[in-house]
Amino acid sequence: MAERLATSTPIAFFSSSDTIADRSLRKTVISINTFSSAPSTPCSSLKSSSLLCRPPLRTITSTRRRLSCSSSSSGVSAVTFSSSDPMQLKSARDDIKKLLDSTFCHPILVRLGWHDAGTYDKNVEEWPKRGGANGSLRFEIELKHAANAGLVNALKLIQPIKEKYPRITYADLFQLASATAIEDAGGPKIPMRYGRVDVSESEQCPDEGRLPDAGPPSPADHLRDVFYRMGLGDKEIVALSGAHTLGRSRPERSGWGKSETKYTQNGPGAPGGQSWTAQWLKFDNSYFTDIKEKKDGDLLVLPTDAVIFDDPSFKAFAEKYAEDQDVFFKDYAKAHALLSDVGAKFDPPEGFSLDNEPPQSPTPEKFVASKYSTGKSGLSEDMKRKIRAEYQAIGGSPNKPLSSNYFLNIIIFIAVLVVLTYFLGN
């Protein structure tokens, strides 16, 4: 296994494709030095600075949000939100789509969400010690973990969206960006829920070493150690591995891959790196088909990739996904949503969806129209009872149109004419 900085090199869940984002980063004023040295920011009171401190939040009245007050270094009480505002999350999603269209940063945003969530340990009950998606990846101490090399670029890309929508948490923003990138690249719709709470200080970051390595001595055992710790099984391991259909590995960051290939030498975005698939910005099942065929030396296959066709349990799922993209999409969507949930703290506890439409009120059945209709099979039982009661009151049949009412109306009309003629004649 490659050596970097005299340590074994952890592999990212996804490659750290920097794309044309690298050029746009020069315009971004966010830097580690800026945040660690700014005396006026609330983050300056932390023992270890946050790379991306959240800006002051506006006070709003909301029956859904619970507010808490915390003292800043200046002694002024600042209002913060324990979780996200749904409307701001929806707007942020639109901005993320625009960012994806202009920078092709799908892989690194997926990786950002995964690395914030992938630290979960099911054996630890206390939050946030158990890890999971809690926004801790915004802190410098966690960004320096070897597996997170290059993710500072993702944070710089997404920070303007956080500043534009201050009533959302970093934890939700990271997961929203990750899911949106998958869907925008042609992947499945992921059943996400939101309402994650952020950690508040760098001391709450997880220990290093919870993310997968690229080339461990026993890849199958290593993957199971990492993912079983999070409560996931073999199916989730293989399905989530399929997301390597997106992105590239850069040797200067991970120690793996070629400096460039025929698929990456001309972009899109910043050229270079080695991709797992030929169309590395398209989400499909080609990761599985390419590994199975082993025909293209320009495509990357790490030890943890090859093992999904070597291990008998993994292979059963990998073969299925190589043959049927719909099955892969279905299992991937469930696994992605599960990974983004485990370990997270939600407020409200059940979370909330951005895609739930309010239930439509059924169109009221018109009694008169229903009563004279010949197609009564589609009527509600309540309406049928009403019609049946009226029919029975006049001796008619509820299974036929109310033809008897026609003759009844004629009789009533004639009777009225007789009465009027009688009175007018007198």
From TrEMBL:
A Pfam family annotated for this chain is peroxidase
Specify the superkingdom. Eukaryota
Q: Where is the composition biased (Basic and acidic residues)?
A: 249-261
Family annotation (InterPro entries)? Ccp1-like, Haem_peroxidase, Haem_peroxidase_sf, Peroxidase_I, Peroxidases_heam-ligand_BS
Where's the Plant heme peroxidase family profile domain?
109-357
Question: Which molecular-function annotations from GO does this UniProt entry contain?
Answer: heme binding; L-ascorbate peroxidase activity; metal ion binding; peroxidase activity
Q: Where is this region: Disordered?
A: 243-274
Keywords, A to Z?
Calcium, Chloroplast, Heme, Hydrogen peroxide, Iron, Membrane, Metal-binding, Oxidoreductase, Peroxidase, Plastid, Potassium, Transit peptide, Transmembrane, Transmembrane helix
Record protein name field: L-ascorbate peroxidase
- Record the organism: Zostera marina (Eelgrass)
